[in-house]
Amino acid sequence: MSLRLASLDPNEPRAAKDCRNCNRRRIKCDRSIPTCKKCGLRSLECGGYGLRIRWDQGVASRGKLSGMKIPVLGGQPAAPLVKTPTPPRSESPIPHIRHAATFPARVDITSLLASPAPAIAGSSRDDPQQNALGIIFDNPHALNINLSEREVPSPLEDPAAQRLFKYYDHFVSATFPWVEGPDNHWRTVMLPLSLEYRPLLLALLAMAAEQYSSKTGFEWIFADGSCGSAQLRDDCLRLLSQDLKDEVSGAAPDQQRHSSGLLAAILALCNLEMVRSDSALWRVHWSAARAITHRWTSPPNSAMTLNYNDRFLVVDAFTYDAHASCTTFDGYRQIPNDVVHPHDVDIFIEYFRLVQDVTRFERARFEDYSHPVPEWLQDRHRIRAAFDAVRRRNLGFSQLFQLASEERKHDFDALIDMYHYSAMLYAFQVALHPVADLLLRHECAEGAIDSLNRIKSPEGIQQNFVWPLFVVATEARGMEEAQKFCEWHLLDAMAGTGWGNFYPALDFLKRFWKTTPGLHPTWITFAREESARGIKLLVI
């Protein structure tokens, strides 16, 4: 018996790609839903068209998670996973991705404590190895500002605070840019500016102390016996309060010189709260960042009137806002797309301009269902065309960065593709039918996962994995292996960077995975419902 494709009803919905059996056998698939009819005629079990996750063995060699086995997409089937101790914050083992063994030791804070050093302030009083171990500061892109040749603001007169300043220079600042390098503005702009504006200095030191604690489990100790980030943050907020009132009200135009440092300090505080998983203060700081950005770029001001430092800060505020707006459902006054100076627009800014437009439309449609659909969001073809146009305009974008090798360029291109598919998936989730276009969304999710698995060395870019993986994970309802895959890669990214902000989002995903499509067609309806009950989440 044979099946002619011409005999199929053209009005029936079809999958966007061939089934696995037909693809493997290199024959034309009829793409019937839910399974291919050709497979049925040959008594074959059709695997369908959904996310394809298989497991392969890999072992992490770094940090406290070393020795754990990992999931990857494709490859040969692996031996059964060995049971490992359950980490405190997770219901399942946390394996690292398979290329963890290739990470340079420099980026793992726990493995950096390898050089003998005398017992000094600037390490933990609870660290049993503090008398023998120190930190190796060897980031080739660090500024290494010589503080002995200048008058320094408090608390940099403390040698332990100076080492924390250096720790930020070498390690913490490296977790912010799309790719670490000599043009990292979280280093080249923030550090010199912090020596001119004390609240920013306190914010950077607080963030460095919090990240150090998150990475190592120990507190940073100062010469006076104080430890950790709390006092630094409190001092920063106390100094910021009046400057912020003056900036927003416009009551002190003579303090313009503080404006750059003010927004920089607020952005640092936004990121400080991301290190911890139990803080909701990011919303307060985010609101302040929005207010200042609106003030700086509203008539008679604009992106064209900003100086170089302010342009960087506005770009960072816009990126933060685009991420945060996706998962928040109150306070719709988003930062507009035109705040970014034309010279600062890159492929990621272009993607997040589209993401910001998608979010803006979703919120407007919720308030008024008759709200017109933007032309580019009216069907799948136009959505895909919009994202493909961004990719075409930025071919060779990785060449603009001083990347160390061809392998690094390959990894960066894969990162771009990861954002391409995940941002397009987000647009599909908002604009298309949640049931009829399910397979199309799964195709995008597979594209993002394929892109992730092309990355050979995540070191230096894995801080960018969280948002794409979150969007992909929202398509994993009913797919246990896909859920594990996303969860383990997300936890790996957080372990590698020291940021703990994703734990509440991961808890949200676990709750969403238990829901039914009939009650919550997409994660967005579920997130809005939880937001109304006071459950907020940030994914960035």
From TrEMBL:
Keyword line: Nucleus
InterPro entries linked to this entry: Fun_TF (IPR021858), Zn2-C6_fun-type_DNA-bd_sf (IPR036864), Zn2Cys6_DnaBD (IPR001138)
Subcellular compartments: Nucleus
A GO term from the CC aspect: nucleus
A Pfam family recorded for this sequence: Zn_clus
PROSITE patterns per UniProt: ZN2_CY6_FUNGAL_2
Domain Zn(2)-C6 fungal-type intervals: 18-46
Protein name from the UniProt record: Zn(2)-C6 fungal-type domain-containing protein
Organism: Cercospora berteroae
